[in-house]
Specification:
alpha+beta, Aminopeptidase, 7-stranded mixed β-sheet, 25% helix
Length: 173
């Protein structure tokens, strides 16, 4: 499916599209421990002003239809971690493998850099090979594994811990 992709900052008008894409990932059971579908109202709570770094990848050939997104979330409320955020990227099923995730990740990195963050962290399922390959290409390092980190549908799942340093923001104050 051919498209022209554009990354931009998300707005609350995008909550329905973000929920649709996230709900696909929940149903697929390949990238999140979540099992309950999300509503636009659930996603609207992400726009809390704490870590407002949410980017959208839209298909300009389809009138700006949202086909992927990336978001950061609070890592810890401790002051020493104020520049660290968790991140997630999800892509619409019909657009996976077409560079949407790569564009979303690059835009998320740039938004996080501008927001003053110095590190993004995440956890991925070990068998999620496409995400692991993309992470490696972008310099997102695998730094460890949490064994039996959570259960999904009654089965214990491991996760690989990844980190992405925003080197421009690591200079001493």
């Amino acid at each position: 499916m051919k498209c022209i992709m554009l990354a931009r900052d998300a707005t609350t008008a995008d909550t329905q599209a973000i929920a649709r894409i996230y709900n696909q990932a929940i149903a697929d059971r390949t990238s999140t421990f979540e099992t309950l579908p999300r509503t636009a109202e659930d996603i609207a709570r992400w726009f809390d002003g704490v870590h407002p770094v949410i980017v959208i990848v839209a298909d300009e050939l389809a009138g700006g239809t949202v086909i992927g997104y990336g978001a950061t979330f609070s890592y810890s409320d401790r002051a020493c971690y104020r520049g660290v955020a968790e991140f997630s990227v999800y892509v619409d099923r019909d657009h996976r493998g077409q560079g949407v995730g790569k564009l979303a990740l690059r835009a998320l990195y740039e938004s996080a850099r501008k927001a003053g963050l110095w590190k993004l962290v995440s956890r991925i399922f070990p068998e999620n090979a496409p995400v692991r390959r993309l992470n490696a290409r972008l310099g997102i390092r695998e730094v460890g594994m949490h064994e039996k980190h959570g259960q999904l549908d009654g089965v214990w799942r491991d996760v690989i811990v990844v980190e992405w340093l925003i080197r421009e923001n690591l200079a001493p104050n």
